[in-house]
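Priority: medium. Attachment 1 of 2:
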């Protein structure tokens, strides 16, 4: 009985350590570096020359304004790492493709596939983060965005596959317009004989 209690206590401690480790990983801080880069999800992120700002009072995860990318570290730490990265690249995408939300989503997906941090599991996490949100004056519905994510992911993975294999369209072989004619050396085919021939010398 005493041995069973000891084993149960050890198991409880190990389980507690496992959960605390997972919690610490999911709550990894989002920080702003001296060079202006944002560190989160094990990556150091910059969006070209755009200035990064952290604001815990922001009512949503992130927002893009002219020349500025603002992230809410308090809300981001509650999200899976892939979602955090997607939010950053989505907002960065606005600085590349403009204000269209679906195009910014697609740009973020393309970067995620190219850099290797976005797979099907992560894509599902991003879609879940949208919830079943209805359309608003600024954003499409969550369902529409999820459908767009799937299409963008399929296109991005195909581009990545093509780039990694280096495959190019096969060249079309030339077509033979007529069959070959076998001619003995020194003999001119009758149809190709010259129209005028000199008379033999007397």
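Attachment 2 of 2:
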């Amino acid at each position: 009985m005493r041995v069973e209690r000891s084993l149960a206590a050890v198991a409880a401690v190990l389980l507690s350590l496992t959960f605390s480790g997972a919690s610490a990983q999911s709550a990894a801080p989002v920080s702003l570096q001296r060079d202006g880069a944002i560190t989160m999800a094990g990556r150091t992120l910059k969006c070209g020359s755009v200035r990064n700002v952290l604001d815990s009072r922001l009512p949503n995860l992130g927002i893009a304004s002219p020349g500025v990318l603002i992230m809410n570290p308090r809300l981001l730490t509650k999200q899976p790492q892939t979602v955090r990265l997607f939010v950053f690249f989505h907002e960065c995408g606005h600085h590349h493709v403009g204000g269209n939300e679906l195009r910014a989503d697609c740009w973020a997906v393309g970067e995620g596939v190219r850099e290797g941090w976005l797979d099907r599991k992560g894509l599902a996490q991003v879609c879940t983060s949208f919830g079943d949100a209805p359309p608003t004056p600024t954003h499409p519905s969550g369902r529409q965005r999820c459908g767009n994510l799937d299409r963008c992911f399929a296109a991005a993975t195909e581009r990545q596959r093509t780039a990694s294999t280096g495959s190019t369209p096969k060249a079309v072989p030339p077509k033979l317009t007529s069959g070959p004619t076998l001619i003995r050396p020194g003999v001119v085919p009758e149809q190709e004989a010259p129209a005028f021939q000199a008379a033999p010398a007397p």
